[in-house]
Structure of Hexamerin:
Amino acid sequence: MFVPSRLWLLGLLACSLVSAEYYNTRTADKDYLLKQKKVYNLLYHISQPAEINYTWYEEGQKWDIEANIDLYSNAAAVKEFLYMYKNKMLPRGEAFSFFYPPLLKEMMTLFRLFYYANDFETFYKTALWAKNNMNEAEYILAFYNAVIRRPDTQYIQLPPPYEIYPNFFFNSEVMEKAQHASLFGLRETSGEYKAYILPANYSGGYVKRDYYLENKLNYFTEDIGLNSYYFFFRLAHPFWMPSSEFGLSDSLRGAEYLYGHQQLMNRYYLERLVNDLPKLEDFDWQKPFYAGYYPTIIHRNGLPLPQRPEWSNFPVYKYKYIKDIMDRESRLTAAIDAGYIFGNGSKWYNIYNEEGLNILGNIIEGNADSYNRKFYGSIDSLGRKILGYNLEPSSKYKILPSALEIFSTSMRDPAFYRLYKRIIDLYYRYKMHQAPYSRDELIYPNLKIESFSIDKLITYFDQFDTTINNGIFINENDKMSLVKVRQYRLNHKPFNFHITINSDKPMKAAIRIFLGPKYDSHHRLYELSENLKYFYEIDNWILDLNAGLNKISRNSQDCFFTIRDQEPSEIFYSKLMESLYGDKPFTYNERIFGFPERLLLPRGKKEGMPLQLFLYISPVSSEYQYMSRIWGNYKFDNKPFGFPLDKPLDGLNYDGSNMLFKDILIYHKDESDMNIIY
Ligand SMILES: *[C@@H]1O[C@H](CO)[C@@H](O)[C@H](O)[C@H]1NC(C)=O
Ligand SMILES: *[C@@H]1O[C@H](CO)[C@@H](O)[C@H](O)[C@H]1NC(C)=O
Ligand SMILES: *[C@@H]1O[C@H](CO)[C@@H](O)[C@H](O)[C@H]1NC(C)=O
């Protein structure tokens, strides 16, 4: 038994037969439990290590890295860290972002120190010390990366980022109330658990701007599950991490970057469509920029994230970056049209072959595996620097990063989608230069879909509570009460796909299901050729077919790439304790995160939102074993991402016996219709 998560890319959403069979669920042994407990302790109230547990604090302070240099496998990395530390590093309390090279270097040096600790005990001691002495954000990010990469912390669970720094997920007025709950007249609830419950809305509640329609999407762009997903997505292959040094699988890195963003964009387009919003407008670096953004969130040090008014001209201090990004964009289009990229030496690399998409993705992201960072730079980070309106730092440690410069907040800014539309347009440009699939590559007459039906699809808004204690300051005299933020979030009722397939012989087959638009925002029917690129892959799995009729049923809740909302840390931790000091077994999955299952479907409409599904079945040629510490391991059919919709259409109408388009309606119910009592 094993498994799961196929290229998540593939499936931002994807399903499995029975979840228990798909996930490789394990029962923790003592060693795992002790490590898991220490990892959670290391993330407990990072801002106040001495107040929260003086024993841990002292233990950390006693750890002498220099005297124990033999306990690290890379002495040079330790020395580099110590040298930097003695010469001042980012002070505690200051804002951090990956997009400021001196700060990135500090975080990387700390990460290497963690990574090269010889055993878990040394890692633990080093982290205890760093928790007391390093900038909090540098510590958190280096620590998350270390737990994900170290061999001895495989599948150790990490809390979702909204519990660690809720200030990036909830509006500042909510954070203020949380900090001073009793002053705001809030009372603890009684009952199962005592807690302060803080109701929270999405942003935009303070400004009346009826004409600015982007706000209609706040419930989606500010969803804490979605933003946590993006945080982990960018953690799966951090742009600054060289594959070779840390054993990342590099063959899909750039391709995942492109396809993963393309899928996120397609998911976003469906949400726009439901809200009757048109496709995204184009923008020009030298003209005013339409989409404004007024974040109502703050950095931990109290500074507000920078704002960008609607239709604003880019400020003068962005001009040099604009010049730079325009140069680099034209180099990228030249590479795509010519078919070759210019390597760092005198070598040219052909990109119209199997590795091509990966090479292209690496140079577009400008990651540590890019063949020529000097020449192609990183339009990903330049775009964020221009559009986010961050201020030029007055000194290296006084920075004010924008929402786009922090992965947990990027998706809140409407500029994020404009930027990635541009990046994904490069991907399409590359794809459209390729030859279309021939009929023989796609049509398998020996496989026939006899029927395909889906249960009624219903979406609704549901209230969720998030514990944020860990992210607020505690007072010595305060007794610790739970503080929970209550917010409405998009959700849907579980449903099943029912598929009947006729096969002429027993075989291994791959099933893919895509969700896509039917009409555009003006209710005009889409042309197939124009529409296919907006399909979003919701499922992809391999199964054994018998000769004759095969009845298959898949439940949306078992979708393998998705996860449910995580348990709050206090519950997770108490289960851990019950197992460690009691006899209760503790089980965990071989994965850390996934796409929020709640967001599998876009919001429906009362009268039904028309969309369509595309079902495609083909024999498995060869299997690919995908491995990821974050998304889990999964076996999938070895085909390009987005297959079979990933190439231009050449007269083929996708009408073979092994494929099917199916119209569906998604209904949305109000709370009152659902009879939900809170
Ligand atoms: C601090 O941690 C130690 C060791 O885990 C534990 O024994 C002690 O009770 C904790 N102290 C407080 C105040 O929580
Ligand atoms: C949230 O928005 C609703 C509707 O505008 C309003 O009635 C409510 O007071 C708001 N709640 C908070 C906590 O701001
Ligand atoms: C060019 O890049 C390759 C691959 O990243 C690397 O191995 C090589 O050392 C680089 N060469 C130069 C001249 O920088």
Notes: The chain has three domains: 8-24+445-462+489-674, 26-158, 203-432.
